Amino acid sequence: MVKRNLAKFNKTMGFQISHSNRQKRKPFLGPETDHDNDDGINGSVIGRLLSPPDVAGYASWLLKHPSAWSSFDSVMKEAKGKKVVVFLDYDGTLSPIVEDPDKAFMSAEMRAAVREVAKYFPTSIISGRSRDKVKEFVQLNDVYYAGSHGMDIMAPPRAVKSCDKKGNEGGFQPAKLFLPAIQEISLELEDKIREIQGARIEDNRFCISVHYRQVPPKDHRILKEKVKSLVENRPEFRLTEGKMVLEVRPSIEWNKGDALNYLLNTLGFSNHAKDVLPLYIGDDRTDEDAFKVIAARREGFPIIVSSIPKDTIAWYSLRDPSEVLAFLLRLAKWKKS
Ligand SMILES: O=P(O)(O)OC[C@H]1O[C@H](O[C@H]2O[C@H](CO)[C@@H](O)[C@H](O)[C@H]2O)[C@H](O)[C@@H](O)[C@@H]1O
User: Fold this and answer.
1) Are residues 232 and 276 located together in one domain of the fold?
2) Mind telling me which InterPro entries this protein's record contains (predicted)?
3) CB of 98 closer than 8 Å to CB of 41
């Protein structure tokens, strides 16, 4: 049985897989109650040993979300003669998930790969981090940056079409009016979680992350309850969950999917243009909003980064940031040749 599962797994990894999931996609089921164990921290490398049940589960998940790497040639056939526009998430996609959010550095190889991709395709990074922070990590000029889950967008000067009231070229900040309230709730959160060992707050400008990766598991529930109760009393905010992080954000209808559409427009591509194929790579729940936008277009490449089976509407998958790196290099090479 184990042998058969392993053989199936190898076959799945090695051969091209049909993309029949595109017709039979399951809807995204929304946030689960706990999101503690799905990020493969310390395990997110190619060649990680999977236990037999993992192997079988991952192999059958791969049939629904084929590897964008293994099926590269057939996937990219669709892109011939069309304009591919690249969107990348940061944490868990361009950098591995690490204990300390301040140390989620991107490797020099990954930076070079993104630089190479940006030479051939319009490229944007859409992150939950503050825009300044993600730019500090990425250190590239020729890409667009959208921070705070898309609530803080800045285009590079070469593609800019518009200025905001202060003359900031290409700037778009739909949650600007919330800034004073965000600062207030940030102080309240600090106060609420002060006593919980390991809990930390990250100021992402238009949203706030409450991290619990370093909180002892016995205290997770209490931390979540404290944050939830605070947000429940502030209707101008809502709560989303990421990888061992709670994210407090303004209750506006704006997410990574809206940012993707905004950037497509800024680049001069109509949202419905048939010759434009958005490619989005991301690993977390907030990335599902961007996958949803691509799925609604029925064309493009929504790619989830995961080394374990998970609920997603992405059509394709990559195991971890090292596969993302390999995929990006191949994408640039494909265009070059
Ligand atoms: O949209 P993203 O770029 O993926 O940002 C989402 C959150 O990523 C960061 O937190 C996650 O990565 C950390 C570093 O690996 C890890 O320690 C943490 O547990 C993860 O949740 C970032 O720190 C958050 O502010 C972002 O919202």
Assistant:
1) no
2) HAD-like_sf, HAD-SF_hydro_IIB, HAD_sf, OTSB-like, Trehalose_PPase
3) yes
